[in-house]
Amino acid sequence: MKTILRAKNVNKTFGTKENRYTALQNIDLTIGEGEFVGIMGPSGAGKSTLLNIFSTIDTPTSGEITIDGQNIVAMNEEKLSDFRRHNLGFIFQDYNLLDTLTVKENILLPLALSKVPAAEIEKRVEQIADTFGIRHILHQYPYHISGGQKQRTAASRAIVSNPSLILADEPTGALDSKSPTGLLESLSKLNQQDQSTILMVTHDEYAASYCKRVVFINDGRLFKELHKRDMTRKAFFGQILEVLSTLGGGHHDANRGKGIKNEELARIFDRYYRGSHTGERHIGSGLGMAIAHDIVKAHGGEIRVASEMHRGTRIEILF
User: 76: domain CATH number?
Assistant: First the structure.
């Protein structure tokens, strides 16, 4: 497998000797071509700092980083600008679309800047629009489409130039409750069919379950890795939640790991994310509240605390 990203002994510190803060310590990470890797961890663990460094937005204090065989640490700003345009694709939480351009014009912008022939631009835009299911909105403007459609447009723009590495920063963070699944399934399809290499920072364990590998960071250090391999997505989801229960690094840090046993997680995933979503559901407190929020985020509904009991709080989810 070709290596797309290799980071060796990467460190990042902020401040002076008298008031120094270490954000990253001795990070070693290798990502191969065709991998879909998630980075997770508690707030302040160093996820965004690491992504900024890989994105060439920031520089490490020390260490080596190569992307597609090129040493990005040794590049000057002019070379970095050219490198970003040709080798990296960015999916941001806040879309960053240009409202004065149509969906199609937003997507083709990187190709136009790189002076790709018009016929090739047309072909690539149609292909990526089909992948993300947005062909029918290509001639609309961003202010006329939904949040989920905006994020799929932003993802299309990031990927249309066939970058060596796609970097996604909380891509589902600004979406409404029903939109993340479409984006995540499109990214997973792109990864599987085209062997696109994706690195995604997320707090969302549901989003992370689409990855092939999840790297956990805590206090600026690599804490643990999970590999999906032959697991089902719901089994992988359960393992991710189990690690986050020790870190407090998911959507609902304060409530994580209190109410539902690990062996119940796969059943909960299947029941709420994949099963029927009508009627009334009851689950336990603690981790149950965390999952209740995830269910409402993905499928809508209302959380209601039904009663307080000595063994915990009963939670109703009304659809």
Answer: 3.40.50.300
The strand pairing partners of 198, in sequence order, are 36, 166
Based on the fold, state whether residues 241 and 260 are members of the same structural domain.
no
What amino acid is encoded at 11 in this protein? N
> Roughly how many angstroms between the first and final C-alpha of the chain, as a whole number?
46
Separation of CA 134 from chain center:
20
Closest Cα partner for 194 from 228, 168, 160?
A: 160
Same-domain status, 174 and 266: no
The residue assigned the tokens 């970095």 is: 80
To which residue do tokens 């069919």 refer? 193
- Structural contact between residues 154 and 96, judged by C-beta atoms closer than 8 angstroms: yes
21 and 76 housed in the same domain: yes
Crossing angle (nearest 10°) for helices 118-131 and 103-113: 130
Same domain, 217 and 263: no
pLDDT digits (tens, 9 = 90+) for 219-234: 999 999 999 999 999 8
Report the alpha-carbon distance of residue 143 to residue 133 in Å, rounded. Answer: 18
- Beta strand 3-14 with 213-218: parallel, antiparallel or unpaired? unpaired
Same domain, 155 and 174: yes
CA neighbours closer than 13 Å in the CB half-sphere of residue 268: 25
The owner of tokens 């992948």 is: 131
pTM for the full model? 0.76
φ and ψ of 127, to 5 deg: -65, -45
Structure tokens at 48: 């965004």
- pLDDT by residue (tens digit) across 93-128? 778 899 999 999 999 999 998 889 999 999 999 999
Q: Which helix (H) or strand (E) holds 240?
A: helix 233-247
Pairing of strands 36-40, 21-32: unpaired
Domain that holds residue 17: 3-249
Number of domains in the chain: 2
